[in-house]
Amino acid sequence: MSLDENIRNRAWLVARVRAEVVGPDPSGEPIVPSNLDKLPSCTWAEYRIPRKQQNGEEVLWQDPPLKRYGAGILYPAGSHLSETDTSNVDAEVTPVPNTRLQTKNDSAKAEEATLSRGITNADDTEDYDVSLANAMSPSAIGLSFLADLSVETEGVVLELANVTRISPEEFSEGPSAIYRRSKVTVRTDKGQESERAVWLRTPMLASDGNFPKIEIPLDELNGQGTKVFRRLVDGIDGLLAVVVSRPWKSGEPDQASLRLLTTTLVNRKNRSGNSDDEQSIFQAGIRVTGKSKRCWIPPYPESDQERSGSLRDTLSDESINQILYREHRTYAIGHGCSADWSDSDDGLVSSIWSDVLPSYETAATTAELEFSDSDGNRNKLKVSMRKLAGLDPADSGWDEVDLLISEYGNWIHKLQNDELPLVEEAWRDTGEALIERVHAN
Q1: Mean pLDDT in the chain?
Q2: Mean pLDDT on 220-235
Q3: Which member of 45, 146, 159, 363 lies 3.0 to 4.6 Å from 287 by CB, making a disulfide possible if both were Cys?
Q4: DSSP assignment of 121-144, as one string?
């Protein structure tokens, strides 16, 4: 089997897993009317045949959507949210004090408490005490990131969109959806009839056919202290957009244009009867961009040094990881989801989005070593255990060992003279300490 076939098979497998877990998964002939509360009757044999709506959208015949799918769902806010304790669902959530941020007023605290419901706290820089971190039925999905509002001068756009990465260079995007309950009468071979429920997928789109969105002017995000923006998304029943904007390292002049934003979409519908199926949002996702389309999102502050401005240990795991992964920075963290982003340009990205089933293509690796000879040709570097064991009378194998040691020294020299000068000043001490360590070994 060729490499291209393997890649196609892998892409098919990833797509099938996503269709099974997140959806949608339309199949069959497009013969089901899309606008009827009760579908034409059919036999049991016909009922078991997969079919789509006439507009190409999915029909769920066997199971309701909450049983069919398990991720990317925003339940109505009145659902049973916690698997461990539901007694304090309506209790106010108190933010944890954070000395590097200005004190919040009572209104901002209440807004952040609302925002935190159903969201998993993914990083200790968030100053929420999220009491529903183990929520079985989350009603919100969100992203936290740093924003440079001196670059993005026109405003911020939040979209309800299901975006996923297909490959390192390819993405797919589609609308979130609700599923509308319909009925169908099913006949047996003996003429007996019974009524069954089927579920028709309805994409959530704005009146212009695009993804539903909220545009936030900069004056709603800039200013002293913490600012909270709340607005219902036009045309989408019960969908609330919440943005909390906080100063980053307040008081430092070079950080004045940076704000730490937490953007969230919350399903504020109430439960209807005993079922949440028609009140839930499926294939849910959030995407954040700037109106100007510029790259305006810097790397997210992951390390203690980035958060506090002081380096604790130059050879800590955290410091070493910052060096090793300096070309693969994190630009957002997710709440109830993973986060992904567009390609960076000079250390900034233009958009971020959620992904409830992320995938990543790892690079191929090999244990083989190569070196360049005096003519510039690439050759394999091998050390023969047979020669070192004295089994080759004509070659002791020590020349190969000397070559390995020489190439190791060349690698260290390249790190010190070519790579270290390119490392950010904040991590230069860690780089120097690592080079000293390999010299010592």
Answers
A1: 83
A2: 92
A3: 159
A4: --STTS----TTTTBSS--EEEEE
What is the DSSP annotation of 199-235? EEEEE---TTSS--EEEE-GGGT-SSS-EEEEEEPTT
Q: Is the pLDDT of residue 87 over 70?
A: no
H or E segment at 17?
A: helix 3-21
In this structure, are residues 440 and 315 in contact, taking their beta carbons and an 8 Å threshold?
A: no
Number of C-beta neighbours around residue 325 at 10 A:
11
d(CA 438, CA 441): 5
Residue 101 has pLDDT above 70, yes or no: no
Q: C-alpha angle with apex 371: 365 to 372, nearest 5 degrees?
A: 135
Query: Using an 8 Å Cβ cutoff, are 265 and 140 in contact?
Result: yes
Phi-psi region of 235 (alpha: psi -120 to 50; beta: other; left: phi over 0): left
Q: Would you say 125 and 99 are in contact if contact means Cβ atoms under 8 Å apart?
A: no
Please, which pLDDT band fits residue 24 given cuts at 50, 70 and 90?
A: very high
* pLDDT recorded at residue 440: 79
Dump the DSSP string for 152-179: --S-EEEEE-EEEESSSS-EEEE--EEE
Degrees to nearest 5, angle at CA 276 with 271 and 279: 75
Rounded Cα–Cα distance for residues 282 and 200 (Å): 12
Let me know: does 7 contact 40? Beta carbons within 8 Å: no
CB atoms within 10 A of CB 5: 9
What's the predicted TM-score (pTM) here?
0.81
Q: Are 143 and 354 in contact (CB under 8 A)?
A: yes
Q: How confident is the model at residue 36 (pLDDT cuts 50, 70, 90)?
A: confident
In 3D space, the residue among 65, 430, 74 whose CA is nearest the CA of residue 285 turns out to be: 74
Single out the residue of 104, 159, 160 nearest to residue 128, CA to CA.
104
